[in-house]
Automatic annotation (TrEMBL):
SMART domains: PKS_KR. This is 3-oxoacyl-ACP reductase. It comes from Sphingobium cupriresistens LL01. Gene3D superfamilies: NAD(P)-binding Rossmann-like Domain. GO terms for molecular function: oxidoreductase activity, acting on the CH-OH group of donors, NAD or NADP as acceptor. InterPro entries: KR_dom, NAD(P)-bd_dom_sf, Sc_DH/Rdtase_CS, SDR_fam. Pfam families: adh_short_C2. Residues 3-183 form the Ketoreductase domain. Keywords: Oxidoreductase. Belongs to the short-chain dehydrogenases/reductases (SDR) family.
């Protein structure tokens, strides 16, 4: 256990699945979330001793806070090898009802947060000559979304573009940057946001006829963060049951 991963938005849902997968793969894990108490609760569940998991309070919109989270992990375990940008705000609202302030709030977490994370850890990885960044995008960023707000879809489309830019510019320094674009996942947050009757219609429209497993998305993130994944760069990994084929 000599590799360390920082997971943003890691206290629940897909983020928690990702944190668990990295820990099970032998990583020391920094579980970060704007809700520091929830992040620490998950870290305690992973390892109550704190030897291989800690919780961090992190508002991804704040560059200084991101740098502090990075430095905390370095001070504790000596290095950071991987970042998973997962922190997200999801709001379902018709496009004509979205206020400019709400639009800005969603993009500030989803897109600005990903940008800051890629920069802060990208600079550190550049100095080290190695690093892995995995961004969590979405099918909504590719097809405009069907059950999410336009601000969510726009932010995820932006993450896909940022992934390609950072991948191109950081590759010469031993850093890879990839994104995972999941379709609808079997998560409490999805079931809470989408009415049951509409969810049934969504599932019926998925070629494999079921929701995705967050654990598989998480294992894909671990795979992309591995040392062996050096030739995967700038890729958008589709995990959507066949909803988008290209």
């Amino acid at each position: 256990m000599n590799r360390c991963a920082l997971i943003t938005g890691g206290s629940q849902g897909l983020g928690a699945a990702i944190a668990r997968a990295f820990h099970q793969a032998g990583y020391r894990v920094g579980v970060s979330d704007i809700d520091g108490g929830a992040a620490q609760a998950l870290a305690d569940d992973l390892d109550a001793s704190g030897e291989s998991a800690i919780g961090l309070t992190l508002d991804v919109r704040d560059q200084v806070a991101f740098e502090a989270a990075r430095d905390t992990l370095i001070a504790r375990w000596g290095s950071v090898e991987a970042l998973v940008n997962n922190a997200v705000v999801t709001i379902v609202r018709p496009v004509l009802d979205i206020s400019p302030d709400e639009f800005d709030r969603v993009l500030a977490v989803n897109l600005r947060g990903t940008f800051i994370g890629c920069q802060v850890l990208g600079r550190y990885f550049k100095d080290r000559g190695h690093g892995r960044i995995v961004n969590i995008a979405s099918l909504a960023g590719q097809n405009g979304g069907t059950a999410t707000g336009a601000h969510y879809a726009a932010s995820k489309g932006g993450i896909i573009t940022l992934t390609k830019v950072f991948a191109r510019d950081l590759a010469p320094f031993g850093i890879t940057v990839n994104a995972i674009a999941p379709g609808p996942l079997d998560l409490p947050s999805v079931r809470a946001l989408v009415p049951e009757d509409k969810l049934e219609g969504i599932i019926a429209g998925i070629p494999v006829r079921h929701l995705g497993r967050p654990e598989f998305v998480a294992s894909t993130a671990v795979h992309l963060a591995s040392s062996e994944a050096a030739f995967a760069n700038g890729a958008i990994w589709d995990i959507n049951g066949g909803l988008l084929m290209r």
